[in-house]
Structures are given as structure tokens and as C-alpha cells.
Design goal:
392 residues, alpha+beta, SH3 type barrels, Pdz3 Domain, 8-stranded mixed beta sheet, 4-stranded antiparallel beta sheet, 10 helices, 29% helix
């Protein structure tokens, strides 16, 4: 009897032989080898870098987070917007200053402190209530403010910027060169021809007090051309004014005076010294440009009034006496000489009272009458409370 293990091994050997025979009989010939590289049509050649379009990767986003960018819109260059129509420039009209009615007040008196102007006082009466009040600089009078107290006038400033001046005497307003309207310059300037004039030095100094007033009366300003001063231009002047009487016109350009250019400050100061130191009958030559044409004006410093008086005196002395008389003059005695000296002293005392006497008289009048009155000077009665107003 055979062993069971031998039987199993024999069966397995037979089975293996059958499998091997089947595999041998069923085997096939392997196919020929083919190149797996793609063809060159539409594909990059070897060694060429493949360019990947990254936008395609973004566009094929699996999560749907990609948003396609819209191409920028290009404005149509043929249809431009219509430009706005130009608007004409309108110059605003010049507003006319509105002047207020002068204050209904009267200047009664002025107290002057020589050493300190801030202690000056003005006695001003309200014409409506007849009440007198003492004011100092800075105090208000109705809608105005007192800004300055001088020896013969006070200056007040209204709420709208209008300036008013109250004079103590009427004659002060007439002779004040700063505010008085002086249209008559015949005593100062005498016209000989269109380019020649005579100027009375004494009357000129009486009317024009200083250089600042002279500049203000002619409204002088410096004119520059390409950054360089070329002279002084006359501003706007009123008819029959000081400048017009001198033969000047608005916007005349003063180039030189006595051949000294009027361009720099040093040269103008030299002109000022040259003119102020000129003697009588001196000639002052002024070169101006009027409408781009050069002109020369000549001014002769001449006091024709004094010469006329001297000529009249010489004529009267030259006339023969119709009936010559003999005059016998006796020497005055001692008493007569003393009385004459006393009368002369009294006359001088009347014409020139001292400051202490004026203040004493002022204080006495204020205590007696309750108001201020002016001391008589030069033998003529004063005008109390006269005033003149001028708005600026």
C-alpha cells in the first residue's frame, strides 16, 4: 500500500506539468516596440522650453473662486466732451463809501499837558442835551472814539471808519493845511507860461508844513520798470489843487529835479536838501514824462509880494512933498519915557500872555460859568466853540 504523501506529491507534479504545458502552448509573440514620443506636429521640439499659460490654470479653477478680469474700456477718442463755454470776467463795481452824518457835538475847550500827551483832556458838549463832559484819548463819544487831542483840535473816529475833526476856533479850521480845503493857490504859485511858474517860498512854507504833506498832496508813488526804480508818479489830484496849479497832471512821471534823478532814497534826500537850501530867485528845473514825452517845468523861487511892496515904498518916497513941513521933535522927559516903557510892556503882556495866566483864566471861567472860554489873544475876541468837521 502506497503512502498518502507520495500520492499527493505525484498529483501536484502532474498538475504542474499540465500548467507549464498550457502556458507554453498558449504563449503569444510580443508586439514590436513603438516610440512613445509624440510627433513634432504642433509640439515643441526637443530642448525647447514649454511655455505654460498660467491664465488657463486660473480660469479652470475647480473651486469657482476665479473671477475673470474685464478688459479695460478704451474711451472713444473721436467723441471728446464739449469744453465749457468761457465766462466773461465781471469786475465788481466799486462800492461808494457811505458817510454818516457828523456828530451833533461842540468842542468847548482843551487841556494840554506839555510833558505827557496821554493826559490831554477835551471838553465836549452834546448839542442835544447841552451837557458838557471831559474826555480823554480812547474814550467813546456815542458811536465814535477819541483818538487824538491837539492844542487846537481833536480827532475822532466813527464806527464806519469815518474820521471827523473838531476845531476849537473857526480860524484854526481855515488855516489847517491838513484838512482845510484850499483851492486858492494864487498867493503861492504864479503862472508865467505853460512851463514856467513863480513860487513864493514864504507862502509855500506856510501852506506846506513838511515833506510828508507835500508827498500826500501830490499822491506820489515810486514807479519800477524791470525791477528798477525810474522815478515818482503823480497820483490822482483834484481840480484847482496844489499839483494842478504847479502845471502837473495826473500820472505824470517825475524823472529828475535840478538834474538829480528821483529814483533812490538817497537821491531824493539830496533833492530835498538842494531845494530847501535854495536862495531867492533860484531856479528849480523839473523833468517829467507825460504820455511818454519828456517835458521840462521851471519854477522860480520869488516873493513877488515883497518886491511889490518895496517898489510901492520907493515910489512914494520919490514923490516930492507938495508942502514941505518942518518937524521938531523934543526929547522925552524921564516920566514920559517911563510911561512909554510901561505901555509897551503892558502891550506885550496883552499880546503874549503866559501859559500860567492862560490856565488861571481858564480855570476861573470854568468855575464861574461852568464852561470853558478862550483867552483873548492879540487884542481880538476869540470865537468860542467854533468847529469844522471833515469826513475822510
Amino acid at each position: 500500500m502506497k503512502h498518502p504523501v507520495w500520492i499527493l506529491n505525484s498529483a501536484l507534479t502532474i498538475l504542474l506539468c499540465l500548467v507549464l504545458g498550457f502556458m507554453f502552448l498558449s504563449r503569444q509573440k510580443p508586439p514590436a516596440r513603438e516610440d512613445i514620443e509624440p510627433s513634432n506636429v504642433g509640439m515643441p521640439s526637443k530642448g525647447e522650453t514649454v511655455k505654460v499659460n498660467i491664465h488657463t490654470i486660473y480660469e479652470n479653477d475647480l473651486f469657482g473662486t476665479y473671477k475673470k478680469e474685464l478688459p479695460p474700456t478704451i474711451a472713444d477718442q473721436t467723441t471728446l466732451p464739449t469744453p465749457p463755454s468761457p465766462k466773461p470776467v465781471t469786475v465788481p463795481p466799486v462800492t461808494t463809501p457811505q458817510f454818516m452824518d457828523p456828530l451833533n457835538i461842540t468842542l468847548k475847550g482843551i487841556i494840554i499837558m506839555i510833558n505827557d500827551d496821554t493826559k490831554n483832556r477835551a471838553i465836549i458838549a452834546d448839542n442835544t442835551t447841552n451837557k458838557e463832559t471831559i474826555y480823554k484819548i480812547g474814550q467813546t463819544i456815542q458811536d465814535a472814539q477819541l483818538i487824538r487831542i491837539l492844542s487846537n483840535k481833536v480827532i475822532i473816529l466813527r464806527s464806519n471808519g469815518q474820521q471827523e475833526v473838531l476845531y476849537l476856533r473857526e480860524k484854526d479850521a481855515k488855516i489847517d493845511p491838513a484838512y482845510a480845503v484850499q483851492s486858492d493857490w494864487h498867493d503861492v504859485i504864479q503862472k508865467v507860461s505853460d512851463t514856467q511858474y513863480n513860487v513864493n517860498p514864504q507862502e509855500f512854507v506856510a501852506r506846506v508844513k513838511n515833506l510828508a504833506q507835500f508827498i500826500d498832496m501830490l499822491d506820489l508813488i515810486t514807479v519800477y520798470k524791470q525791477g528798477k526804480s525810474i522815478g515818482c508818479k503823480i497820483g490822482t489830484m483834484a481840480t484847482n489843487s496844489f499839483g494842478s496849479e504847479l502845471g502837473l497832471q495826473n500820472h505824470d512821471l517825475v524823472v529828475s529835479i535840478n538834474d538829480i534823478p528821483a529814483t533812490t532814497t538817497d537821491e531824493r534826500f539830496k533833492i530835498y536838501k538842494d531845494v530847501t537850501s535854495a536862495q531867492s530867485d533860484a531856479l528849480v528845473t523839473v523833468k517829467i514824462l507825460r504820455e511818454n514825452q519828456e517835458m521840462t517845468l521851471q519854477f522860480t523861487l520869488k516873493d513877488w509880494k515883497q518886491k511889490k511892496t518895496q517898489n510901492q515904498g520907493a515910489t512914494s518916497q520919490a514923490q516930492p512933498q507938495a508942502q514941505p513941513q518942518t518937524v521938531v521933535q523934543m526929547a522925552p522927559t524921564g516920566d514920559e519915557l517911563k510911561d512909554k516903557q510901561m505901555r509897551s510892556l503892558r502891550q506885550r503882556h496883552t499880546f503874549a500872555p503866559t501859559l500860567q495866566e492862560i490856565r488861571a483864566k481858564e480855570r476861573e471861567n470854568m468855575l464861574q460859568n461852568g464852561k470853558s472860554s478862550q483867552v483873548t489873544v492879540s487884542g481880538s475876541p476869540s470865537i468860542d466853540g467854533a468847529k469844522n468837521r471833515q469826513g475822510e
